[in-house]
Sequence to fold (751 residues):
Amino acid sequence: MRRPIIGTNHNVHVDFQINRNTKTTVELQPLMVEKLLRQKRSTSYVDTVTKLDATGVHCRKEDIEKMIEELKNQFPELLEHQLPIGIVSKCYLGKPYEVHTLDTQLQIVEHYKLGSVLPNGMEKARVLAMNPNYVFVEVFTSYICAVTKDGQTSMVKG
Amino acid sequence: MANQAISTANLSRIEKSLSSIDQKIDVALSTTQSIANANLLNIENSISNINHNIEVVYNEVEQANTRIDATQDSIRQLAQEFREYVRQDQLQKNVQLAETRLVKVRQEIEKKYGHYDEVRRRALGILQAVDISLVRKETIESASEEQLIAAPSYWLAPCLIALSAWINDNKALAEKSVLEALRRDDEKASLFFALVARRGGRYLSGKLWLERYLSQQDPNELKREIVVLIDAFSNGVFGVDARAKCGTIIQKWIEELSQKAGFVEEQRDQWITALRAKQQGLHSNEYQHLAQYSPTWSALKASMEGAKLHNIIFDYFNAIFSKEVNPSVSLVSAVDALLEGLVSEYDEEEQPLKKEERLSELIVNQDGDKNKAQHLFDQEKLFNERVNFTQLLTNFAMYPEKSNASIATQKLAIALSKEWINHAHQDLTAENRSQVPLDVAIQIDKWTGTTRDGSNEEELEQQLKSHIDSEKDHALRNIKLGFGPWFLLSAGIGLAIFAISMPFLFIFAALFILVFFANIHDLNKQKNAIHALYSSMFDNHKTILLAVLSDVVDYRREYSKEDANSEYVEHLLENVSPEHYIYSTYDLNRKVL
Fold:
C-alpha cells in the first residue's frame, strides 16, 4: 500500500523563538574580542558587581551565581575560556581588608588583606582596583579592563 | 789490717765522689728549672708578641679592605661619570653632525629642485596677472612654454601651458596640455584645476574636477596632498555643493575604515603614541630626597610624568580650539594659499631629501639621541607615500607644521578623531594609574623601610632607631680588650703577690696594672665615641627620613591633583563636534549641512 503524502493531519511545530540564553559557539578573533571588551558595561552588571561585599566577609552562594550569570550576559559572544579570569575591586569592609576578588572559575569571593598577594595573575589589577576612579577591574589573560561607575572601560594590556 | 785501711780509704773516696755527683745533680736540676722558667717566659712573651702582631695585621687588613671598598666605589663612580661623559660627548657630536647635515640637505634641495620654484611662482603669477590685466597674453604664453622646457617631467609645467592657453582662448592647446598634465600626475592636476576653477568662479567645472579627484581616492591609501582638499573643505573654500560632497565623502571614508577589524585598536595605539610623544620629564630639583633615598623613585617619576601629561594634552588641544581662524580676506587669496601649498609641498622627487631633513631636525630637537629621534620619525609617518585617512587626521592634529595643516584643519581633524583620542587618553590614564607604586621604599644607608602616604612617621622612626641601636651594639661588641692588657693585669697581680717577699717588684706590678687601666680608659673613650657617632647618625637619618616622608606627602598630593586633570581632557573633547569646525566664510548664502 502506498504511503499517503497529503491529508495526514500531522502538525509539525517549528519554533522560531530565539532563546535569550543562546550563546555563540564560534570563537572570536582577538581583535574582535578587544572590540567587545571596550563596549560600555550594562548598569545591572555594574550594580551587581559593586555589591560584591555588601553581605559581609562571606558572600552568599546565590549572590555569586547571580554575578556569574550577569557576567555571561554581559559577554554573550565570548566562550567560557575568553571570559574574565576574575574581578577585583576595592574592599569596603575596612581594615585590614584592602581588595576582594571574584574568581570566576572557582566561583568564590575572597577578601585580601594589605600585603597579601592576589592569585591567578589578578595582582596586576590591584592598584587600579584601589583607584577611586574605577568601581572594579576585570582581569583577562592578556588585558585588564578598568570599569567606571557609568560603565565606561579603559583597557591596559599585559 | 792493711786491707782494712785500704777499704776505709776507698769508701771515703767513694763518698766524696758521690757527694760531688750529688752536688752536680743539684746544680744541674736548679739550672734546668731556671732554664725552664726562663724559656716559658720567653715563649709567653713571644706568643703575646705574635698575638699583638696578628691584631695589628688584622687591623691593617681591615683598613685595607675599607680602602679597597672606597677605591672600588670611587672607580665605579668614575667609570659611571666617564661613561656619562662619553655619552654626552657622543650626543653633542650627533647634534653637530645633524646640524651640518641639515644645512647640506637644505642646500641640496635648493640646488636640485630650486628651478621648480620658478614654475611654482609663475603658476600663481599667471593667475594674479590675469586678475589685474597688466600682462600681455603673449608674454604669459611664452613664459609658460619656457617653463615646460626648463622642467621636462614636472607635472605643473603643462598646467601652466593649459592656463595660458585658457587665457588665450586656445582650446586645442589647453586640452592637449591638460591631458599631458593628467598623464604626469592625475591627482595633483585634478586638484589644481578644481581650485583654479573655484578661484575663477567656474562652479560646474570646479565640481567636475573635484569629483574626478575624489573618485581616485582610496581612504586606505591617500596621498599627502589630500591635506589641501581638507584645508579647502575646513576653511570653507568650496561652494555649498562641493562642501556637502566632501563632508559625505569624509564620513564614508571613516565608516569604511571603521568596519575593518582592528581599526579602532590601531587608531587608539596611534593616538597613544602621539599623546605620549607630548610627555615631558620631571625637573631634576623636584622631590630631591625621594630621588636620592627611594629605590621606588624611577616608578614614581614615570607615574608623575604620566599624570602631568593630562595638563599638557589639555593645554595643547585647548590652545588649538582657542585659536581664532583668520580667514583670508577673499576667496581668491584663500585659493592662492592652497595652490601655493599644493605646488610646493608634495613632490615625490623631493621626498628622500625631505625625510633626511626631518630626521636631522629631530636629532637636533632630541639633543643628539638618535634612537629616540628615529623612533619619533617612524611614528610620525609624515613621509609615507600613502597613508590611511585616519593617520592623516592624526598627523594634522599632532604634527600640524610638518603636515601643513591650517588651524581650521587641525580643529576638524581633532573633532573627527575625538572618539579615538578619548579612548587612547583613557587607556593611557588607566595604564599610568596601574603603575603608580602603592608602597614607597626608603633606603638610608643600610636601613630600609616603606611608606604608603608618609603618615607612618612614628613607626618608621622607631624602626630606624632599632636599626641604629642594633648597628651600635654590633660596633660596641667589636670594641673589647685584647689578650695583651689582660696578660698585663694578670702579670701585675702575680708580681704584686711576689712583691711581698721582693718589694722592688711593686714598681713593675703597679706599672702593669696602670697600663691595663690606661687600656680600659681608651676602651671607654672608644665606646663613648661610638655612642656619639650613632647618636648623630640617628639624628641625621631621622632628618633625612622626615624629608623623604615630606616628599612622599607632597608627591601623593600633587599626583592626585595632576591625575584629576584627566577629566578636563575628556570634557573638552566631549564638547567638540565636526560640524562646528567647517567654515563657510566665502558663502553668500547660509551653510546648510
Q: What stands out?
A: The beta strands of chain B are 222-223, 386-387, 440-444, 447-451. The interface with chain A takes residues 261-262, 264-265, 423, 426-427, 429-431, 433-436, 438 of chain B (CB under 8 Å). Chain B has 20 helices and four strands. The longest strand of chain B covers residues 440-444.
